[in-house]
Amino acid sequence: MESLPRLVDNDPAARKINADLERIDQEIKDDASSCREMQNSWWYRDTKVSFAAPGFLSLEAFNDVYCDGAAHPFTFLETPTYDLATGEHVNWRQLLPANLLAPQPQRFDLAVIKGSAQMVTLESV
Known about the structure:
Layout: H1 12-36, E1 42-53, E2 56-66, E3 74-78, E4 81-83, H2 92-95, H3 109-114, H4 117-123
Antiparallel strand pairs: 1-2, 2-3, 2-4
């Protein structure tokens, strides 16, 4: 199973980010351990850096899970974004002005951007 990438810096913000990435990875490993040994089960994970710019880092982890005997696989996407100065997880709803946010009160990071008509217009320019 692929782990999220880590920062090579050793400043306090990088250490905080790496600790959170380790926590996310460990949660996935713990969840997967119960079905990993079952025959006909799988846990696939593909990770990438989706955005790296001065001040911010966004990662993407696509997870596809099937435990033998379940009705169907379970697929989910994790999209943590970090403030590189503080090491804090970015809350887009607090950071962006209201006109750039999607109208629905969804928690998912990508929904905030991809569901915003204003951001979609800016992306297509």
